[in-house]
Design brief:
This protein is α/β, with parallel strands linked by helices. The chain contains five helices and five strands. A five-stranded mixed sheet has the order 2-1-3-4-5, covered by helices on one side. The longest helix has 16 residues.
Length: 179
Amino acid sequence: MADKARSADVFTDNYRLFEAANAAYATKFTAEGHGTEVMPPARKVAILTCMDARLHPSAFLGLNIGDAHVIRNAGGRATDDALRSLVISQRLLGTEEIHVIHHTNCGMMTFSNEQLRDKIKTDLGTDVPADREFFPFSDLDKSVRDDLSTIRSSNLVAPATTVFGHVYDVETGKLRHIV
């Protein structure tokens, strides 16, 4: 049976653009402020946010390289894997504060688990177990509160951790504090 994924020897336009951009970047690169920084983030903060390409957390939070751990996934949800990253950030790298940032006009508000399972079945012929959670949501503020609750109730996250929740507005660039 042939591999489903495209072979690595078939270069895409993005691959070529990334390669060229990296070559240009590397010619100007100095390790100062990058490779020489200590691994723990200088501001002792972890950010959990969405992978949406419209979000640039370093820009809208005023972060420099080395300031924070930025953990991204679909919806910025406090999934098991996001919690794994937050635990490593805290226990091994010294972060003491967590900010969860969801955003307006999020694609995670456009489907249900059932709809995505059906799409996968139609597109790929793969049955997705009914208990597979993709973490869609319909209420933006509630999703932030739910994720904060997940983080705060985890016995793997330090009890004294300061946790904040926000919504980023993709039309104005403004951050709205939720909790």
